[in-house]
Amino acid sequence: MLLPLLLWSTMFATGAEFGPSLEGEVVPAETEATDAAEGVDTGAVGCSDQYLEGGVQLPDLPLFFKRGITDNEWGTPEMIDAIVSATRHMRWLMPAASPVNIGDVSHEHGGFQSGHITHRGGVDADIGIYSTGAHQNANGGFEVLGDNFDVVANWALIEAFLDTGYVDFILLDHAHIARLRAYTTHAGLLTEAEADDVFPTDNHPWTRTGYLRHAPNHDNHMHVRVLCPDGSHAGSVKAAG
Ligand SMILES: [Zn+2]
């Protein structure tokens, strides 16, 4: 599952700043991971996309990331580790990049969270993406990027998440996905075969292939879904009620 170690680019483009962020999303039900755990390992430790047990709250690490609504920042240990590890890596790789803005993860014990269909089991997190110049809004929240998507910095952030080994999939606007695929293949960072493993290989909006998958309303942030501790997909098979 781990991507091969790739060459990092530290190129920065000059930046521009943008207006206030637009938050709020509704992830289509078709994009929710509802697969039951696969395989026959009866000793597996699964997790739920409906509620959260043993959740961990995102710590204060302002050098790495800017927190949002702290009551909404509880996740599985894997989710929190993924956020901390990936954003710590970005601070090392691109010291001038803005801290990453973190949106909603889940409530302490999970369950329904206003504005979301998912985000109920501590396995989903909304993560800010960089505008040109590896910039994120200093006041928190997400920026609408359009063509000002910083493909170098955002690929570095996505790769840092993938390299944690915890990621199930990442939801992002298809236009940004196309930019990332073009960049990584043209720059020789990924072969076409590797790109097929990372990016959707068809144009169907609900494709379940690839780590990066299109979802509407994800042009100003990405939605990271992590796996359960045993590597299975989070599912609702254990959900109570
Ligand atoms: Zn989300």
Using the coordinates above, name the CATH class.
Answer: Alpha Beta
Q: List ligands, each type once.
A: zinc ion
Which stretches of 5+ consecutive residues score pLDDT under 50? Answer: 1-44, 237-241
Count up the helices: 4
Form type: globular
Count of domain modules: 1
CATH arch. level architecture: 2-Layer Sandwich
Distance between the termini: 34 Å
Question: What is the number of beta strands?
Answer: 8
Q: How much helical structure, as a percent, in the residues? A: 10-25%
Q: What is the radius of gyration computed over CA atoms, rounded to a whole number of angstroms?
A: 17 Å
SSE ordering: EEEHEEHEHHEE
What proportion of the residues form beta strands (DSSP E)? 5-15%
Keywords for this entry:
globular, disordered N terminus, 4-stranded mixed beta sheet, 241 residues, Muramoyl-pentapeptide Carboxypeptidase, domain 2, binds zinc ion, alpha/beta, disordered C terminus, 21% helix
Quick take:
With 241 residues, the protein is of the alpha/beta class.
Give an overview of the whole structure.
- With 241 residues, the protein is of the alpha/beta class.
- It has a single domain, classed as Muramoyl-pentapeptide Carboxypeptidase, domain 2, CATH 3.30.1380.
- The protein is built from four helices and eight strands, in the order βββαββαβααββ.
- The strands form three sheets. A four-stranded mixed beta sheet has the order 5-8-6-7. A two-stranded antiparallel sheet has the order 1-3. The chain has a two-stranded parallel sheet with strand order 2-4.
- α1 crosses α2 (151-163) and α2 packs across α3 (174-186).
- The radius of gyration is 17 Å and the shape is globular.
- The chain starts with 55 loop residues before the first strand and ends in a 15-residue tail after the last strand.
- 46% of the residues are buried.
- It binds zinc ion.
- The site of zinc ion has 7 residues, from β5.
